[in-house]
Amino acid sequence: MAGKNPTVNHSSPRDGRGRRTAVVAATLTALLASGLGLLPGSGGDAPAAVAAGGGRVPTEVGTGDAQVAAARSGEAVEVLALRDERSTTVANPDGTFTTTEYVQPIRTRKNGTWQDIDTTLVKQANGTYAPKAAPTAMAFSGGGDRTFARLEKDGRSLSLDWQSALPEPSIAGSTATYADVFDGVDMEITASAEGFSHVLVVKDAKAAANPDLAELQLPVRTDSVTLEKTAESGLEAEDRASGGTVFEAPQPMMWDSSQGTAADGGASPGPSPTTPAPGGAGGRTAR
């Protein structure tokens, strides 16, 4: 087990408006065998073919049976043998086939069957929290320890630690919130199909003035991967044997939450993992 300690720096707002919030948001994503890296999404996209009327398309295991069923019914029939994490193939009544491919995984294998992606967090036997169904194995702290998140893919893993023992989180859907990791600062961790994002919510200017937010060091522990900084100030974890990228984290983003979120286009590049952030206003932060 090897470890590195990348540093994330945050600055706090001091413009006198108190509740204004800046956000630094970052993500960690597992890469699939194809090498395609994707940012986390909300999960829960419709994973099966849907008929024009909104109902599920009937299914058959093989292509021949699906063609016969489609011709008889006059409706598309999904070919289960061709179903995978990112695509759905249907046989059409005219004898042709249509494959719909998705940018993000829409289903995953669990207990030998395909299941819809469901990133709702549920408590595990060991006390951690994990998504109900996701192609990348991940676990979030249930409180009482310092490791707040762990990703694992094909026997290779990466975990991130906080600076002290974490409180028990409150869970809302795909998000675990750890209250008061600093005075007036909460940490939110949100699961997606292939990874997670984590955000520090700095609630007001007083909390943002905490000198502990000036520079945050988050210990990173890895197994079978080597962590490197990218030219874009992100991080990549490369397989030690093959050199292929297994996990990635893009450059953190910062925005003023009173003006909208990163998804609204209100984000700008935040501080890099090794470069101090400029002074200014503050509120929400993450890595």
Structure description:
By secondary structure, this protein is mainly beta. The chain has 2 helices and 26 strands. It has helices at residues 63-73, 205-208; strands spanning 2-4, 7-8, 22-30, 59-60, 77-79, 87-91, 97-101, 107-110, 113-116, 118-123, 129-133, 137-140, 147-153, 156-161, 170-172, 175-182, 185-191, 195-202, 216-217, 220-223, 225-229, 235-239, 245-249, 253-256, 268-269, 284-285. Strands 3, 15, 16, 17, 18, 21, 22, 23, 24, 25 and 26 form an 11-stranded antiparallel beta sheet that branches. Strand 22 and strand 23 form a beta hairpin. The longest helix has 11 residues, at 63-73. The chain is elongated and about 70 Å long.
